[in-house]
Specification:
two-stranded antiparallel sheet, two-stranded parallel sheet, globular
């Protein structure tokens, strides 16, 4: 994915902020955006009924940055990857694990449980973490 310098800076800033979340803890997409001084970057906008992945400024949302976090590879192509950025520690402001493709939420719940985070299940089968 080709990125402008500003977008590249934003992706790296998000990844660095997420690296600061301690094991066994979670935070929200909005909290990451606020920490980085870009409160409006936590939520994607909808245009013509389609979720864009961009926030109102046209920059990628925190969730989109995490969605595009590269997988670890032995060739060292990426400084930031899914083994050194604890993506699983970011959830939505309601404490819900956001759905993402088949099995994605369950994988995130399992990763959080492995760190000692208590993850419950709602009546609708959604995964939830108590943020209190």
């Amino acid at each position: 994915m080709a990125r402008s310098d500003e977008a590249q800076w934003w992706f790296h800033a998000v990844y660095e902020a997420v690296q600061e979340i301690p094991p066994g803890s979670v935070t929200s997409y909005g909290h990451i955006a606020r920490l980085l001084g870009r409160r409006e970057y936590h939520q994607s906008i909808v245009i013509d009924g389609m979720l864009t992945g961009l926030c109102s400024s046209g920059m990628p949302s925190v969730g989109v940055c995490l969605k595009h976090l590269p997988a670890f590879s032995d060739d060292g192509d990426h400084f930031f990857h899914d083994q050194n950025v604890p993506w699983q520690r970011v959830i939505n402001a309601k404490g819900m694990i956001s759905p993402r493709g088949p099995g994605g939420a369950a994988r995130q719940a399992a990763a959080l449980r492995q760190e000692g985070v208590t993850v419950g299940t709602t009546a609708l089968g959604e995964f939830i973490v108590d943020l209190r």
